[in-house]
């Protein structure tokens, strides 16, 4: 957030995610901005710029910026912030600044000092040189990027001055109504360069890249809280247009949403003793006959029942279709006096609380009236991820508008995740089959020829549950369009475990991204295990095993994963290339006590055979939106790693239920400044932390409002 090209001391609302583009002649900027904390702004910027060496054509540059608020504005003092620009980039845009902003009614005034790129105006001597003469010398040069050049912070013989005014224009009456959210801006820039011709950041050889003017002016229009548009005149020579979209994670868009189903009345008691006797025809099991009399059993495995007492089977025959209609896969039912145990899998709802509410609502008209406690067991592909006990009366009170989600939460007890099987329970027959079709989009940034390479396709996948917690899953993908295959050949000196992505994209239009047999289960309470064998991901096949200890009432988990894999052929069918590696990691997952932050630490061996560790830090909002970043350092030397020096990236994950859809799916945006081979991990479906993290007490507490949805 800033003026036009210069920063100010203002910050977006906490958690705001903004992505945008700005275009002018010979330069364009793509940005992703995240207000990571109330006082910390982070920005990833990708720039397509004039190739300063040739004086024509374009090259691109990636940069990461930070801005930290030192104090907020009050009646007398301005807001004050300090910033680092191009923190781990190549150095072309590297600079530091300190800036103050003060509002006077509708006018916001800003003034600041800049170093590095923000000192090309060279207005006066660096005042820090009076503290230490070393501040007067700043290292120059363009590197491979990826490392933090702390030895250049706030250094240089001269500093630049920048200042600006921003005026909020009152609403303007137009034939289409009032135009609000219009602001006029003017600034005096500390950056005297239009482009890098002349040698910047090295010693300047000529003034070909100098701006004609350091005064910039423009208009910004925010017609609503999600859209921002702007136009400005920069450097005395260039017209720039920009547009950006904002997402507010704690404030979902006002979109139509389906109301929750009603909480129906309990069924009337039935005097079983006066029911007429039923003759069982020869060859028909009593369980299937009772189910048929109670409402019918669907054809095939989908509707079949196995085992179970006649009473359980009769209720299950009515209950299981209702659960399927609500989006769940029913697995088992057992009635025990005042308690009903319902075992389900799947479901279109992200939070445990909302899944609980929908199961209880679907079961309400089918459970015997004497049932007061509902014991729910939630399973994912064979592993129990959560168990809880809740009271039927709490949902009935909420349905009469005499209760609340908070009261239901207080009446709900979360139990350790563990498998439950009881004699006499009615179970759904196996095998179970599920399938789906989804679009696929693969993005790569950092190619020297173009800012973004992409490939779009469509994938059809399915899974067959085979019993004993096992399943066979796979997918077929068809490429539709994209330029990902036009990337440059890899120049890596390491085994090319990821950098040959362009060759993989070119080799086949119809691929098998995954085809594997897996087993997930619970070897002990709150302990989860997975074994997967086959074609695990688009680039590797083999066998992978993982175990995770995740106490449901703690804010941490510990996992171990090991795999032996072979690199798949470029066509992504059934051949391999001959490269084999054993890889694995020990991982620690933890929720941090501030601002819904979480951290992940990993240590082990990566796909290129390198050893090292990964640190990941992210923030997860109650809406399910996640934003985070990661960095991996291994025993690969920076010069052997190549451009970027080490693996790092940022990610944004947005669940589609934020937009009003009833689905557990989400959009994932993963950005690496450059794709290399060091520090790369295997990507296997059903990683245990992702599968089980929402079954913890902390997640239930964060999403308790789902009990009312």
UniProtKB/TrEMBL annotation:
Domain of life (superkingdom): Bacteria
Family matches, as Pfam families: YjbH
Xref: InterPro entries: YbjH
Protein name: Exopolysaccharide biosynthesis protein YbjH
């Amino acid at each position: 957030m800033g003026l036009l090209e210069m920063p100010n001391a203002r910050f977006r609302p906490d958690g705001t995610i903004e992505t945008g583009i700005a275009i002018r002649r010979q330069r364009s900027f793509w940005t992703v901005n995240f207000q990571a904390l109330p006082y910390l702004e982070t920005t990833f910027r990708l720039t397509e710029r004039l190739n300063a060496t040739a004086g024509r054509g374009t090259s691109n540059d990636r940069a990461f910026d930070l801005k930290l608020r030192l104090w907020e504005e009050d009646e007398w003092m301005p807001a004050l912030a300090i910033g680092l620009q191009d923190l781990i980039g190549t150095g072309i845009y590297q600079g530091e600044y300190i800036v103050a902003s003060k509002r006077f009614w509708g006018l916001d005034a800003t003034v600041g000092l800049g170093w590095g790129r923000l000192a090309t105006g060279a207005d006066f001597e660096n005042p820090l040189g009076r503290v230490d003469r070393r501040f007067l010398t700043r290292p120059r040069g363009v590197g491979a990027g990826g490392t933090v050049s702390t030895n250049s912070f706030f250094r240089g013989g001269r500093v630049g001055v920048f200042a600006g005014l921003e005026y909020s224009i009152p609403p303007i009456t137009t034939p289409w109504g009032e135009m609000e959210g219009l602001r006029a801006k003017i600034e005096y820039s500390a950056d005297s360069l239009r482009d890098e011709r002349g040698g910047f950041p090295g010693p300047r050889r000529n003034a070909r890249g100098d701006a004609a003017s350091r005064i910039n002016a423009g208009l910004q229009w925010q017609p609503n809280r999600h859209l921002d548009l702007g136009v400005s005149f920069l450097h005395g020579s260039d017209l720039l247009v920009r547009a950006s979209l904002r997402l507010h994670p704690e404030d979902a868009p006002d979109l139509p949403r389906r109301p929750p189903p009603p909480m129906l009345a309990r069924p009337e008691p039935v005097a079983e003793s006066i029911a007429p006797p039923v003759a069982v025809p020869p060859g028909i099991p009593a369980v299937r006959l009772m189910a048929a009399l109670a409402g019918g059993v669907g054809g095939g495995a989908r509707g079949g029942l196995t085992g179970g007492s006649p009473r359980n089977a009769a209720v299950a025959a009515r209950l299981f279709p209702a659960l399927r209609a609500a989006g769940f896969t029913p697995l088992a039912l057992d009635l025990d006096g005042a308690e009903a145990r319902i075992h389900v899998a799947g479901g279109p709802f992200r939070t445990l609380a909302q899944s609980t509410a929908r199961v209880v609502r679907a079961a309400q008209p089918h459970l015997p009236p004497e049932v007061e406690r509902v014991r729910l067991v939630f399973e994912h592909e064979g592993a129990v991820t959560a168990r809880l006990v809740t009271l039927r009366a709490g949902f009935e009170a909420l349905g009469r508008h005499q209760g609340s989600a908070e009261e239901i939460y207080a009446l709900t007890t979360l139990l350790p995740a563990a498998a439950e099987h009881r004699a006499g329970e009615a179970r759904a027959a196996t095998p179970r089959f599920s399938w789906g079709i989804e679009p696929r989009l693969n993005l790569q940034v950092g190619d020297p020829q173009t800012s973004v390479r992409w490939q779009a396709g469509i994938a059809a996948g399915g899974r067959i549950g085979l019993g004993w917690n096992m399943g066979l899953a796979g997918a077929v993908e068809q490429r539709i369009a994209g330029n990902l295959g036009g990337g440059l050949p890899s120049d890596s000196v390491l085994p090319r475990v990821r950098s040959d992505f362009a060759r993989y994209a070119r080799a086949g239009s119809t691929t098998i991204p995954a085809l594997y047999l897996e087993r997930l289960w619970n070897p002990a309470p709150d302990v989860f295990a997975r074994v997967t064998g086959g074609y695990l991901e688009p680039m590797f096949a083999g066998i992978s095993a993982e175990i995770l200890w995740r106490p449901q009432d703690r804010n941490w988990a510990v996992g171990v994963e090991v795999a032996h894999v072979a690199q798949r052929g470029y066509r992504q069918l059934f051949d391999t290339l001959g490269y084999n590696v054993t890889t694995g990691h020990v991982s620690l997952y933890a929720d941090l006590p501030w601002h819904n932050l979480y951290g992940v630490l990993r240590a082990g061996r990566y796909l290129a055979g390198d050893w090292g560790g990964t640190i990941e830090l992210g923030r997860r909002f109650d809406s399910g939106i996640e934003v985070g970043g990661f960095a991996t350092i291994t025993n690969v030397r920076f010069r052997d790693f190549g451009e970027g020096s080490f693996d790092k990236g940022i990610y944004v994950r947005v669940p589609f239920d934020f937009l009003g859809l009833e689905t557990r799916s989400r959009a994932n945006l993963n950005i690496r400044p450059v794709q290399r081979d060091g520090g790369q991990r295997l990507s296997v479906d059903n990683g245990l932390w992702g599968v089980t993290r929402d079954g913890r007490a902390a997640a239930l507490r964060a999403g308790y409002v789902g009990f009312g949805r």
